[in-house]
Automatic annotation (TrEMBL), chains A, B:
Residue stretches making up the Acyl-coenzyme A oxidase N-terminal domain: 15-133
UniProt GO MF annotations: acyl-CoA oxidase activity; FAD binding; fatty acid binding
Protein name: Acyl-coenzyme A oxidase
Involved pathway(s): Lipid metabolism; peroxisomal fatty acid beta-oxidation
Gene3D superfamilies according to UniProt: Acyl-CoA dehydrogenase/oxidase, N-terminal domain (1.10.540.10), Butyryl-CoA Dehydrogenase, subunit A, domain 2 (2.40.110.10), Butyryl-CoA Dehydrogenase, subunit A, domain 3 (1.20.140.10)
Keywords per UniProt: Acetylation, FAD, Fatty acid metabolism, Flavoprotein, Lipid metabolism, Oxidoreductase, Peroxisome, Phosphoprotein
Length: 662, 662
């Protein structure tokens, strides 16, 4: 154990194990999670080279091997529960992307959801056993967000009872699907269905792309890797171009919509259920944001406890950099955010399961709000986390730029979350649409429920400055509940401003859609304030469930820090509408500094509670055993001068002209 | 020419060539810059593979070859002026790092500044000719910011008249110097000088590290690459460990301090001049921030003009994404920032040259302010640019994550600027120290001059809320001058708050240093506000020099956008102290939306004016010829499935157990 970290741990005011149980949901969950993690950590088959020292191609090869191993081991270990699979993968992969993941996360689920029984019989077993490796090809070079704009066509030919697949333009080439570039031999392709001369919109087709056995692209198929990316080296995101490529009619997934042998189109009864998958994935991503941020905080805070630098008082030993107020101000609000997002992630999971059960009973009433909430929270948490990981990295000084910190990999693996599964700005505008609908509902005299119920209390005509006194202004900056009220008032005010600006634009412009676009900056701001309120509210409510007094105290400080930091960053929003006074904002800034001091002694224990065994695998700076600098020196020795480099340098030295051409 | 871009250019309200002349300083500068750029762009020796598709080792090899070529070509082309060398390198290297750069940027200048004539005679010619390749080894594994903490020792042995160099601890190993890992055979090493049993602090020594001819590390030297990093693949940042390694007495750079043969230490007369180098490098980095941000804006705005997606009105063709207000709100304030920083960069260069001349005449009076200003502006512009490059990248949707955008490389190449040459928080605190000194000076009845002269106008006791009415509150949000006043008042207020909080802490705490640490968050905030004011002021003043009316109009809009966006982001600062009213902030938000609409028709011309010929070399999305998607498809084809991958996948397919072990 590192001496600095040992001292930090001994000084903590609480037992981190108890907090780990809170984060996992129960002591039993913690036990089982560790059991699964240890299966992997103790298994020699799961050791592999440090990926940072490999080429992209080598990283891909390691990933393919690991993917194959993983499938086998999960079977061996009897791990089948989705949550347990997630724990297993998270430790197994250590911030690592696997080429066959889409077979399990998209190909098989889509087959199950949209395939007929006969189709499942035909493809399910072999895709589960990886004879077939499938992926899901939706995005095209020219279209991601706007699904209706996808250009790939599947034209039915009744004579042969086949669909003819085409990529009619450069922009229609499928682009980005994971595992498509090299690994997969099948893809579920989304294409515009054309039959009897009419286009019926997007449908899903099972498309063989490579020959089983030889793994060569099939005739009519052009497939390959889209090239190097910012991270995701192990993943072969790919392209797919189809030229008059024929597949049997039976390859269209026909559980809902159908094309009869003669080409007659039978439309689906309902498509509400596909809605559920999006909601599930986005609510899962909120938890991923929490996890990535927690990991970044663990590394940055541990390193800040170990790193000694400069001096506070001249002549005294160099302090831990965690003792500098500026370092605390960089990291502790992020630590508070990590906890906030952990609780939001847990809430999203519970809510999803609850509403999913309701849906099972035919009750879809809560789905619109859940959809709006997951969209907004996915954007809010991923934007925040994205910037926060980089802040953690830059808080580690020079070593943050080295892969030894593990932070660059956390960043590049996380950052696509801001764009995939719904681009964040688009997500915020979806939430805004729900907020505007709710606002209109209140204005037409109906009450709204759920997280937006604060709109019921809106006094009319309130945004005129002279009438702001209507607000209750007694915010107690030491009460999470009172601060939640302040965030609620801010959200209500920004929703109202967006709604009124939208109304004004509607009056001025020729179309509602143009008005919407010209108000979209206000709409995004309103959604952000709404999401921020939800996070603050959930964190405050979580405190009520904490029994242990020592845990309650530290979490309450983090909750206050999260709330007050947000107010300080967005002080204008809280001053406007007189939610808070100028002198309160001054007090907020003072109180934040006091909270930094209060959190300081528990900072290391607070990241220990996240219980990342695997930090040590990906990060030298996050290690807690021994001397971090000795580990760093060992790590660096893995990239000696190789022979080609030596010969080049040697030849250069011996040439007086200093021209070294290849 | 791409059709969308052609249409954008035809619709512009001004001639971008005229604006390019403004940015370059004169039409003659533009002409000469292009002449140099064309030398490279037309030279087949400078074409090379796309680095994105190479391994780290291959990238390093290309870089070494290019470095060698560059030295030769600059000689051939007769390029010797420092500014011209910079242009040459910038185009030549295209966001590319060269292993021998430290030989020219640090080794030779240090030899010239600190070496005696005899030392220059001995090493200068061969280092200019690259027989000797030198680097500059200062940072150690355990110390970057805190120079006095460096642990490497150089102990003088009068018997042999040698220095004995040692790395006594793991943390004392030199870490990070560019070109040290593989390329260099000499290093200027900073070490604690010990002679006659006494330590005299840091001094510079010329240390041979590899044998000329064989390029093997010399006995007593352990040297190598520190391993993979976030970017900088081409650079062999290295480590250096010395064990009782002896160098002759003559290898200590002795222009100022000296060690006599008997070991007597002769201290330097003055060390003010080393100050100058830091100031120069930091002021240069302000220009680099401007350049990197301008490039990122060029790519993101061109791509947003070419990319069509979604719909504003149903049934109409897909709009350019640049027509979405949210996209404009993401990009145009950054474009305004890029222009702001361009002008700040030009100002810094002029000021540096002016003050350098003064220093030449023995006048050091302006050096403290220049030092404070460069420190703060280096931090302010690099933090802003760092976040802005990522915002540009994420504004490009999925393609922003691909190296085809060029943006990940711009980011990873730029981001170290936040840490090197003075860690940003440390820089901000240096500026704060100057601000506090100036504040104290005013309070003791003396006037201050230069950028801080606003402190002369501070009414005493003004931060009490009840007295805020003292401020003039008539801010005209359509006047850059009036907005500059508002920023000035904000800076003055935050400097005063920091000063008062510091005073309070000094009274409460046992030491000034502890008080400083416990106020450092306020101090950084004050420095940021000061720097923000300086940027706004310089941009506003630049407008006065613009003759052409059409150019003046677009730059004025950008200046307003920069000022108002900053106010909107930091509204709390402007509401507090009643610098602005709530209804003014509401107007600011409205005015920003109008400015987005005003900038929209000129957005492409505004990035064209940056005149980056080289964008097309590093970025597919930034290209302006033909169809960007066709270029993208060609680009992706450069990474086909290789043989090892194929064999692995093929073997996997034929094994029923699906276990592929390496």
């Amino acid at each position: 154990m590192n001496q600095d970290l040992r001292r930090e741990r001994e000084a903590a005011s609480f037992n981190p194990e108890l907090l780990t149980h809170v984060l996992d949901g129960s002591p039993e969950n913690t036990r089982r999670r560790r059991e699964i993690e240890n299966l992997i950590l103790n298994d020699p088959d799961f050791q592999h080279e440090d990926l940072n020292f490999l080429t992209r191609s080598q990283r891909y090869e390691v990933a393919v091997r690991k993917s194959a191993n993983m499938v086998k081991k999960m079977r061996d270990f009897g791990i089948a529960d989705p949550e347990e699979i997630m724990w297993f993968k998270k430790v197994h992969l250590v911030n690592f992307v696997e080429p066959v993941s889409l077979n399990y996360s998209m190909f098989i689920p889509t087959l199950l959801n949209q395939g007929t029984t006969a189709q499942q019989e035909k493809w399910l077993l072999s895709s589960k056993g990886l004879q077939i490796i499938g992926t899901y090809a939706q995005t095209e070079m020219g279209h991601g967000t706007h699904l209706r704009g996808l250009e790939t066509t599947a034209t039915y030919d009744p004579e042969t009872q086949e669909f003819i697949l085409n990529s009619p333009t450069v922009t229609s080439i499928k682009w980005w699907p994971g595992g498509l570039g090299k690994t997969s031999n099948h893809a579920i392709v989304l294409a515009q269905l054309i039959t009897k001369g009419k286009c019926y919109g997007l449908h899903a087709f099972i498309v063989p792309i490579r020959e089983i056995g030889t793994h060569k692209p099939l005739p009519g198929i052009t497939v390959g890797d889209i090239g190097p990316k910012f991270g995701y080296d192990e993943m072969d995101n790919g392209y797919l171009k189809m030229d008059n490529y024929r597949i049997p009619r039976e390859n269209m997934l026909m559980k809902y919509a159908q094309v009869k042998p003669d080409g007659t189109y039978v439309k689906p009864v309902s498509n509400k259920l596909t809605y559920g998958t999006m909601v599930f994935v986005r609510s899962f991503l909120v938890g991923e944001a929490a996890r990535s941020l927690s990991k970044a905080c663990t590394i940055a805070i541990r390193y800040s406890a170990v790193r000694h630098q400069s001096e506070i008082k001249p002549g005294e030993p160099e302090p831990q950099i965690l003792d500098f107020q500026t370092q605390q101000y960089k990291l502790f609000p992020l630590l508070a955010t990590a906890y906030a997002f952990q609780f939001v992630g847990a809430y999203m999971k519970e809510t999803y399961h609850r509403i999913n059960e309701d849906i099972g009973h035919g009750d879809l009433s809560e789905l619109p709000e859940l959809h709006a909430l997951t969209a907004g929270l996915k954007a809010f948490t991923s934007w925040t986390t994205n910037a926060a990981i980089e802040a953690c990295r830059m808080a580690c000084g020079g070593h943050g730029y080295s892969h030894c910190s593990g932070l660059p990999n956390i960043y590049v693996t996380f950052t696509p979350t801001c764009t995939f599964e719904g681009e964040n700005t688009v997500m915020m505008l979806q939430t805004a649409r729900f907020l505007m609908k709710s606002y209109d509902q209140v204005h037409s005299g109906k009450l709204v429920c759920g997280m937006v119920s604060y709109l019921n209390d809106l006094p009319t005509q309130r945004i005129q400055p002279q009438q702001v006194a209507v607000w209750p202004t007694v915010v107690d900056i030491d009460s999470p509940d009172s601060l939640t009220e302040a965030y609620k008032l801010r959200a209500a005010r920004l929703v109202e401003i967006a709604a009124k600006n939208l109304q004004n634009e509607v009056i001025r412009r020729e179309s509602k859609e143009v008005a919407w676009n010209l108000t979209s900056v206000d709409l995004v701001r309103a959604s952000e304030a709404h999401c921020h309120y939800v996070v603050v509210k959930l964190f405050s409510e979580k405190l009520l469930q904490i029994q242990d007094k020592s845990i309650h105290t530290v979490l309450r400080n983090l909750c206050l820090l999260y709330c007050l930091y947000g107010i300080s960053q967005k002080a204008g929003d809280f001053l406007q509408g007189s939610i808070m006074t100028e002198s309160q904002i001054t007090q907020v800034n003072q109180r934040i500094k006091e909270l930094l001091t209060a959190v300081r002694p528990d900072a290391v224990a607070l990241v220990d509670a996240f219980d990342f065994k695997d930090v040590t695998l990906g990060s030298v700076l996050g290690r807690y055993d021994g001397n971090v600098y000795e580990h760093l020196f060992e790590w660096a020795k893995k990239s000696p001068l190789n022979k080609a480099e030596y010969l080049l340098l040697h030849s250069w030295r011996s040439q007086p002209s200093h021209t070294v051409n290849g």
